[in-house]
Structures are given as C-alpha cells and as structure tokens.
Automatic annotation (TrEMBL):
This is ATP-binding cassette domain-containing protein. Residues 19-249 form the ABC transporter domain. Keywords: ATP-binding, Nucleotide-binding, Transport. InterPro entries: AAA+_ATPase (IPR003593), ABC_transporter-like_ATP-bd (IPR003439), ABC_transporter-like_CS (IPR017871), P-loop_NTPase (IPR027417). GO terms for molecular function: ATP binding. Residues 312-364 are annotated as: Disordered. PROSITE patterns: ABC_TRANSPORTER_1 (PS00211), ABC_TRANSPORTER_2 (PS50893). It comes from Isoptericola haloaureus. Residues 342-356 have a biased composition (Low complexity). It comes from the Bacteria. Belongs to the ABC transporter superfamily.
Length: 364
C-alpha cells in the first residue's frame, strides 16, 4: 500500500489485499434514533506485515472488526478477506483468520499448556502446535504455570498464542494492549512485529499511536466511521508536511510572530509555550522573524510524528460535538441526512476462529 489518500480518493494499492471493504456501513439503534457506527468505509489492508487501525473512541474500529468476523451484520457495503466475500463466504476463509476481539476465557487453575491443549482439541488443531505457539509468544518458560498466576501481559500473549493454533495467515487484534503496563505493551508489540516479519498479516486497532508508529508498516485512520487517511506510516508523516519547526519567542512577540509567519504563508499553531510551524525549516523561520526584529529564544526542527498526523486528521471528529481541545466540532459539509429506519438484521453466525465472543451488542 503505497498511497496516502484522502477519503474517497483514488486507491492505488500494490499487491494482494488481506482485507478490503467497500462502502461498508453500520448503524445502531439508540434512544435518539440511529447512531452511525461505520459510514461508507473503504479499507484496504495489504497482505503481510502489521497494519494499524487507528481512530478516536467511538470511530467504528470495533464495529468494523466485528463485521469482518461476521459478528455484526453490515447495513450495506461489502467486505472481503483474502478475496472471499464476508460474512457470506467466511467459512471458506475462517481457517486462515485468528482474532482477539474481547478478553478470551481461560481456566484459571489450568496451566497455559493445558488451556491451549483443550482449545486445540476443540478447534481440531494439532496438539503439536501448542508448544510452537507458546514459543512464538515467549511463554515456553511459564507454560506449566497456572493461568491465574500470569501477569496481564502474559495473559494477553496467551490469548495471541490461542489465535495462532491454526497457523492463520491473518491476525486481527482489537486493542490488544488495553490495560497493560509499558513492559506488557512492549511484549505484545514485539510479538506482533515478529508475526509481521514472518509474513503474517496483523490488523491491530489501537489508540497508542507511539506504539503503532513503532510496529506498523501501514495504517488506516478512521474518524466518525469514515476513513480519513491510509498508507505507509512514513508516507503519511511526510505527506503531512514532513518536518516542522518549533520556535519559542518572548510572550509579547507571539502575536507579531504569528502574523509575520502568516504573511509568508506559514501557519503557526500554539503548542505549550511554543509555536509550531509546519512545512518550514529552522533557518528560514529564524530569518523571517529576525528581519522584523523578533528574536527566537529557542528554535529547533520538530519531526512530525504519527500522533500529530492523527490529531490533525481527527481532532474535529470526536463524538459528542467537541474536539480534543474542548471546542465545538465543525459540522461536516458531507454529513449524511438522517437515516431511514431499517428492519432488524438477522443475527449472524458466530464465526471468529479465535477466542472472541460472538455477541453482537445492541445491533439494529
Ligand atoms: N452494540 C452497540 N449498540 C449501540 N451502539 C453501538 C454498539 N457498538 C458500537 N456502537 C456505537 O457505534 C459507534 C462506533 O463504536 P465502536 O465501538 O465501533 O468504535 P471504536 O472505534 O472501536 O471505539 P473504542 O476505541 O472506544 O472501542 C459508537 O458511537 C458506539 O457508541
């Protein structure tokens, strides 16, 4: 996936896709009418490597994952996994998919190995896989310990091990680092990176952008159920202007510095006690300010990271009408008219090949 594209932009993806959705939409009933979970979502996840699925709370990540796994039925649109229409042809491809959508259940008094053996028998995976997957997630040394003695990070790695029993090609992890401490997050990140390096496709939804930036090859960013950007992490960052400049001037000079930069076509935004000027270089900014008698107290290049790209794309898109800084959200020009009521959807079959539960919530 080499492109960085705006919503609705042309899609130019190289190679085979592990996941593709087109015009996917899901609404839920709520007391105030209909709530949009996912809106016209076009998602493309290339085969192999780690793909981050990012978005603010309530932006539709879990809903999308549940639709892919046949746990929630879309109102409209289509989705494929390795070219198979899902949920219709999910049985044809489900053996190639492992997923963690909710915390899986293990027997607390059984060891990790005993738990995985039971699970392997249940899903008809060869028992020889048990030791292999424990090794994959770095739990071989603790394989005989009871599950209840495990740390949260170890429990989550065991959940990942469970998804690997059938040696799937695609792993789908919904917020796998939730509730983990930095060491636990690091372990999961390493496990995901290893899987990606071995040619597996890992789709991971997350809020922890620094973590995703370190582990993901490609990302899709969603806001209010829509795709707002996707592509290689490096392309997304350079597409947002690449480097920026962080400059600190005397408090009395902030307003004049801002208007000086604006007169040269540069937008300076406030960040703590500094101004951040995107798409500029320190020497140029220093010269512009100095020529007008405004002297920088500090000036340094500031590399744009995934977090600033994410905030730039989504800060006006949080639910509840307020952006991340507490301001009123802009009304979308392309906002959809109210949705007509639709008939309740039939409950889909439970199809996750991992250990996620198959309850669809308050589906419409
Ligand atoms: N079972 C449900 N019943 C009603 N509304 C739902 C249900 N599941 C999700 N929604 C709504 O759909 C929208 C998208 O939610 P979803 O959980 O998919 O987002 P998310 O990006 O995964 O959020 P988070 O990161 O907080 O888990 C939200 O407005 C949410 O309240």
């Amino acid at each position: 996936m080499a492109d960085v594209r705006p919503p609705g932009g042309d899609v130019a993806v190289e190679g085979e896709l592990a996941i593709e959705t087109r015009g996917l939409r899901k609404t839920y009933r709520s007391v105030r009418g209909r709530r949009v979970g996912v809106e016209d979502l076009d998602l493309q996840v290339p085969v192999g490597g780690v793909h981050g699925f990012l978005g603010p709370n309530g932006s539709g990540k879990t809903t999308t994952i549940r639709m892919l796994l046949g746990l929630v039925r879309p109102d409209r649109g289509s989705a494929t996994i390795f070219g198979h229409d899902v949920p219709r042809h999910l049985p044809d491809v489900v053996g190639r998919v492992g997923a963690i959508v909710e915390s899986p259940t293990f027997f607390p008094a059984f060891s990790a190995r005993a738990n995985l053996r039971l699970l392997a028998d249940g899903i008809e995976a060869p028992r020889e896989r048990v030791d292999a997957v424990l090794d994959d997630v770095g739990l071989t040394g603790r394989a005989r310990d009871r599950y209840r003695t495990y740390s949260l990070g170890m429990k989550q790695r065991l959940a990942i091990a469970a998804t690997l029993l059938k040696d799937p090609d695609l792993l789908i992890f919904d917020e796998p680092t939730n509730g983990l401490d930095p060491a636990g997050i690091h372990e999961i990140r390493r496990t995901m990176r290893d899987l990606g390096d071995r040619g597996k496709t890992v789709l991971v939804s997350s809020h922890i952008l620094a973590e995703v930036e370190q582990v993901a090859d490609t990302v899709s960013i969603v806001a209010r159920g829509r795709l707002v950007a996707s592509g290689r992490v490096t392309d997304l960052i350079s597409g947002q202007g690449g480097a920026a400049v962080r400059v600190v001037v005397a408090p009395d000079d902030v307003a004049i510095a801002t208007s000086l930069l604006a007169s040269r076509g540069l937008v300076a935004r406030h960040e703590d006690d500094a101004l951040v000027v995107e798409g500029a270089d320190p020497a140029g900014v220093n010269r512009m300010l100095g020529e007008q008698g405004v002297w920088a107290r500090e000036i340094a290049p500031r590399q744009v990271d995934l977090e600033s790209v994410f905030l730039g794309l989504t800060q006006h898109e949080t639910p509840g009408g307020r952006d991340h800084r507490g301001g009123r959200r802009r009304r979308r020009r392309d906002a959809e008219p109210p949705v007509e009521p639709v008939e309740p959807a039939a409950t889909p079959a439970a199809t996750s090949s991992g250990t996620g539960r198959a309850d669809g919530g308050e589906e419409a």
